[in-house]
UniProtKB/TrEMBL annotation:
This is Geranylgeranyl diphosphate synthase type II. PANTHER family: GERANYLGERANYL PYROPHOSPHATE SYNTHASE, SHORT CHAIN ISOPRENYL DIPHOSPHATE SYNTHASE. PROSITE patterns: POLYPRENYL_SYNTHASE_1, POLYPRENYL_SYNTHASE_2. Keywords: Magnesium, Metal-binding, Transferase. InterPro entries: Isoprenoid_synthase_dom_sf, Polyprenyl_synt, Polyprenyl_synt_CS. Its cofactor is Mg(2+). Its EC number is 2.5.1.1, 2.5.1.10, 2.5.1.29. It comes from Herbiconiux flava. GO terms for biological process: isoprenoid biosynthetic process. It is an enzyme of class 2 (transferase). Belongs to the FPP/GGPP synthase family. GO terms for molecular function: (2E,6E)-farnesyl diphosphate synthase activity; dimethylallyltranstransferase activity; geranylgeranyl diphosphate synthase activity; metal ion binding.
Amino acid sequence: MDTHDLVATSERRQQHVERVLTSFFSDSHYRARALGAPYAALWQTLERNASGGKLFRPRMVMAAYEALGGTDLDAAAHVGAAFELLHTALIVHDDVIDRDFVRRGNPNVSGSYRDIATTAGIPLPIAEHRGMSVAVIAGDLALFNSYRMLDRSGAEGVVRTRLHDIFDEAMFVSAAGELYDVDFSIRAEPPTVDEIVDMERLKTAGYSFEGPLQAGAVLAGASGEAVHALGRYGRSIGIAYQIVDDLLGVFGDEGDTGKTTMGDLREGKRTVLLAHAVTQPGWAAVETLFGSPELTPEGADRIRSVLEEGGSRRFAEALARDFANRAWEALVTDALPEAVRQEFQPVVASVLGRVR
């Protein structure tokens, strides 16, 4: 499949999922209006926060489904939309945990309702509490409806049960990963590289890669061996992706990534980069700068120099390549047809290409 065909296929899948989500939100708006304007406004805010992304998880579902011979694209789009609603729920709640009021450069649910309150003259601490309270409600709505969306796929019997089990596992391990991430932020000693990798596998790889790929395979009627192989692939490529994202969060081009390269350093984000850096003698020189809300561009450059000179950047890049290679190895099995390797080889190449 050439580049033009890949782009066309990706756009087709995305449009199919967008139609499902548009229909869902249209129905929800209609129901909400009957309960009053404030509730209708909340659904509009939730839809805005669920829109504008790349629909990466639904496209994973549909890619696995079609590569394994599935033909009911409406069913696959509903399963994909379920994972997108789950993603929406998790990021809305994650922003509450992190006390973030902005996402993708715009006010998130918390920020939107905080701003409404401050405009009305409510003091900032109370306005922020209102914003986060509404975000909890919005996240709950997205989470509950993600399960309803799964049922709307039309899957029945054993397939429906297996889809529920995959979805349940994705949510179950993501909650564990979020808990460990929260604990890392208050622990006296920094987490190890292995602890960071485990956290990222649980928090992100499970529901972003492993679960969607396995769900697409189950919906297509694939063998247990094929579902297992795609799960192994998803786990490894998900970890690789997250390590690369953490690298780009510090060393990336802001014009390409769309996010600042100082945010993670100011926040003191626990990543593989940090876990390696704290074991190096040069880290002591910048330790007080890392995680400082007052971090300046000059201070950020000093931290980057230490990460470079101490080998932390090279270490993280090598680890990302290692997990990307593990992902490819998981696909090299007789349990999967060649179409699956053709479908997902570009994903592996993309990860490797993002690492210097």
